[in-house]
Amino acid sequence: MTTKTVKLTKVGNSTGVILPREVLEKLRVERGDVLSVVETPDGIELTPYDPDFADQMEVAERVMREDRDVLRLLSE
């Protein structure tokens, strides 16, 4: 495991974290992207993966799969 330090900086009335380029590349994110902050038993995790959105998408995919015929009729 590699340890990196980050700098906290003032952003308006808030505080921001400056992430090194290598970290951004590993997360596959860039300026303007949204990260989720997840509390885990080991601490705080920053991830581009939004678990709530993933759950919603799973439900939507199940509905689309199960009610394919009804959705097709509604689209006509």
Q: Which labels suit this protein?
A:
76 residues, alpha+beta, Pemi-like Protein 1, Chain: D, two-stranded antiparallel ribbon, 4 strands
Provide a brief overview of the structure.
With 76 residues, the chain is an alpha+beta fold. 41% of the residues lie in helices and 26% in strands.
Structure description:
A hairpin with a 2-residue loop joins strand 1 (7-11) and strand 2 (14-18). The protein is elongated and about 55 Å long. It has helices spanning 21-27, 51-66, 68-75; strands at residues 7-11, 14-18, 36-40, 43-47. It is 41% helix and 26% strand. By secondary structure, it is an alpha+beta fold. Strands 1-2 form a two-stranded antiparallel ribbon. A two-stranded antiparallel ribbon has the order 3-4. It has a single domain (7-75), classed as Pemi-like Protein 1, Chain: D (Ribbon). It has three helices and four strands. The model has no long low-confidence stretch (mean pLDDT 87).
Spell out the blueprint of helices and strands.
Elements: E1 7-11, E2 14-18, H1 21-27, E3 36-40, E4 43-47, H2 51-66, H3 68-75
Antiparallel strand pairs: 1-2, 3-4
Number of strands: 4
Structural class: alpha+beta
Q: Unreliable segments (pLDDT under 50, ≥5 consecutive)?
A: none
Distance between the termini: 54 Å
